[in-house]
Design a protein that fits this description.
about 50% helix; binds lanosterol; Glycosyltransferase; isomerase; two-stranded antiparallel ribbon
């Protein structure tokens, strides 16, 4: 660390304790009566267009979105426009064709005239960058649904792939969509239905007008075959490998035979079975914001008067969020369970838990009622589903998809709550239910010793060669991740500590394999790449925690030492850490420019250093970091919302609004109990 702008002298125990009391007192006011903490989970800009286009095409726009909803959505789009007139993939990103063309049509559908300044600037951006044929594949899909892009301009997503054999010995089975990462699978599933059935809305005057507004040539003159592979450089994160050109060309030719055939009919019926299964088992919430609206569109295409279509409507609101910047569609139906388990662990880490019994009792209730108590209807293999009984989801019980690290954080929250000595705490989750969770966690471990997100890794990374999205990286299969692995390891270790006799040998073995995975993932410079938060700082916390839970500290582990030295080499002169989201896409540490520390990054770094027990070797740096967090606390007890901290698929950022409260509390809390020993 250089410079001396940070005030010197160690913060006293009284300072830290007072900051924590204020921090938790403020934060508990944001808690809902059911115990969860709501928060903005926006960020991506390609989601709301899917909702608005679906509502428009199915004719329910004004029924679903009140004038107030629509006005707030327009306000959001006005606020999120970049200076150059375009829209990014997410709120902090450079303009892309994907973001801009989809936001443009959304504003037009919501009633803005083409001559409105916002529209004019966006349209100019589109035309200056080659016109809407240069939009990414998912954008092509939405424009085709709306009717202002030809299906011939899209690389095929034939539903027939669902009829391929699944078994791996058949070779081709390794490429069966049932082996894809569930998010990729659940998006391409309904997409293949809409593509296979050529589901397009009515050619309204607005759509006719859009056909004139979006392209550099007249609509009739567009070379659709060439358009299939056009993609604006601003959007291209994962360029097509050559093999895709060959594959899509062959399928493009085959489409002439498949369209309208008996085989197509059979494939569409098979796809719809899976769409309904997903809808019913998520109570029409669906796994994510993309398949939510495409599934809804499928149900409408199948039968506009169907019960299924009607049931989708009330669950659209689960994805909407209104904030100071307007109304947005969130990246999920929220991050309720995830934030609640972190908040619990943070508050418990302060050593002041007994002062907040109501808050923790409510949080316990939320964790309790959100655990998934049964598997989805079987046979699970036929639906490509993993077990769920005992797992925790990311958001709500209704959503219900089990996730490895959410289960682990749920388990850790239960274990932490059980330690809170307060007579007023309600009954906690039973031992049997904790054991169910352990069962899920153990079942999730992959052959490489790591843990993936929702399922086991089911195929080879070579499948990534057929990732057609252009904008997203590493979406085709579910990979092992440092974060998921760490969460699973720490939860198993904590569970074992409290229940030493339950599946002891299996847990011990699992921890050894997990440790090997974590060590293997560490880079030569001591860092780990983070896939779900920004980025190396986020992963440092998980990496150090994982090693700590198997007894490793800087005193006995080279890996811990290197991790801490990496972190210290990134500390800013103000005592904090500030990493840019560019780290995620570039996979190289990127400092925010100008150097600007962030409370969340600073908190992650402190947590990592304390986990590795580095504090006594870096007292000065640790003190400066703690001072920084204290200095950033607002008079209300809140901390400021700074840059976006979440990410998915390397390239798209997502907001975790609760992190600005949770992590400073957690880091100061651990500092208070583990360093100041209060
Ligand atoms: C999430 C949200 C939670 C997140 C964590 C639990 C934090 C992580 O540790 C594991 C991965 C997971 C479950 C995750 C994966 C990707 C998601 C589902 C998201 C970031 C929320 C939105 C994103 C989803 C893919 C967005 C829709 C876009 C597509 C490309 C389909």
């Amino acid at each position: 660390m250089e410079g001396n702008s940070a005030p010197t002298g160690a913060p006293t125990g009284a300072d830290v304790t007072a900051a924590l009391r204020e921090g938790v007192s403020f934060y508990q006011q944001l808690q809902q009566p059911d115990g969860h903490w709501p928060g903005d989970y926006g960020g991506p800009l390609f989601l709301m267009p899917g909702l608005v286009i679906t509502c428009y095409v199915t004719g329910c726009l004004d029924e679903v979105l009140s004038p107030q909803h629509q006005a707030e959505m327009l306000r959001y789009l006005r606020n999120q426009q970049n200076r150059d007139g375009g829209y990014g993939l997410h709120i902090e990103g450079q303009s892309t064709m994907f973001g801009t063309a989809l936001s443009y049509v959304t504003m037009r559908i919501l009633g803005l005239p083409a001559k409105d300044e916002v529209c004019k600037d966006a349209q100019q951006w589109i035309l200056n960058h080659g016109g809407a044929t240069h939009i990414t594949s998912w954008g092509k899909f939405w424009l085709a649904v709306l009717g202002c892009y030809s299906w011939d301009g899209m690389n095929p997503t034939p539903p027939e792939i669902w009829l391929l054999p699944y078994a791996s010995w058949s070779g081709i089975g390794l490429a069966h969509p049932g082996r894809f990462w569930c998010h990729c699978r659940m998006v391409y599933l309904p997409m293949s239905y809409v593509y296979g059935a050529r589901g397009t809305g009515k050619l309204t005057p607005l759509v006719q007008s859009l056909r004139k507004e979006l392209f550099c040539t007249s609509y009739d003159a567009v070379d659709w075959n060439a358009a299939r592979n056009q993609c604006a450089p601003s959007d291209l994160y994962y360029p097509h490998p050559k093999i895709q050109d060959v594959l899509w060309w062959a399928l493009y030719k085959a489409e002439g035979l498949l369209l309208g055939s008996g085989l197509r009919k059979k494939a569409l019926a098979e796809v719809m079975r899976h769409v309904h299964y997903e809808d019913e088992n998520t109570r029409y919430v669906c796994i994510g914001p993309v398949n939510k609206v495409i599934n809804m569109l499928c149900c409408w295409l199948e039968d506009p008067n169907s019960e299924a279509f009607k049931r989708h409507i009330p669950r659209l609101y689960d994805f909407l969020w209104v904030a100071e910047d307007g109304m947005k569609m969130q990246g999920y139906n929220g991050s309720q369970l995830w934030d609640t388990t972190f908040a619990v662990q943070a508050i418990c880490a302060t050593g002041l838990a007994a002062e907040f019994p109501d808050c923790l009792r409510k949080a316990q209730h939320y964790v309790d009622v959100t655990q998934v108590r049964e598997d989805c209807p079987g046979p699970l293999v036929a639906w490509y589903r993993h077990i769920s009984k005992g797992a925790w989801p990311f958001s709500t019980r209704d959503h219900g998809w089990p996730i490895s690290d959410c289960s682990s954080e749920g388990l850790k929250a239960c274990l932490a709550l059980a330690e809170v000595k307060d007579g007023s705490m309600g009954s906690s989750v039973s031992d049997e239910r904790l054991q169910d969770c352990v069962n899920v966690i153990l079942s999730y471990q992959n052959g490489d010793g790591g843990w993936a997100t929702y399922e086991n890794t089911r195929s080879y990374s070579a499948l990534e060669l057929i990732n057609p999205s252009e904008t997203f990286g590493d979406i085709v299969i579910d990979y092992s991740y440092v974060e998921c692995t760490s969460a699973c390891m720490t939860s198993l270790a904590e569970f074992q500590h409290k229940y030493p006799d339950h599946r002891a040998a299996e847990i011990a073995k699992s921890l050894r394999r997990g440790q090997a995975f974590i060590e293997k993932q560490q880079r030569a410079d001591g860092s780990w790449y983070g896939s779900w938060g920004v980025c190396f700082t986020y992963a440092a916390w998980f990496g150090c925690d994982a090693l700590a839970c198997v007894g490793k500290s800087v005193a006995n582990s080279e890996a811990q030492l290197r991790a801490c030295e990496f972190l210290l080499s990134k500390q800013c002169s103000d005592g904090g850490w500030g990493e840019s989201y560019l780290s995620c896409q570039d996979k190289v540490y990127s400092q925010l420019q100008p150097e600007q520390s962030q409370v969340v990054h600073t908190a992650w770094a402190i947590l990592a250093l304390i986990s590795a027990r580095y504090q006594t070797r870096a007292t000065k740096q640790m003190t400066a970091a703690v001072r920084y967090l204290l200095s950033r606390q607002l008079p209300s007890g809140d901390w400021p919302q700074e840059h976006i901290t979440g990410v998915f698929n390397r390239n798209c950022m997502i907001t975790y609004a609760n992190y600005r409260n949770i992590f400073p509390i957690w880091a100061l809390g651990r500092y208070r109990t583990a360093v100041l020993k209060l």
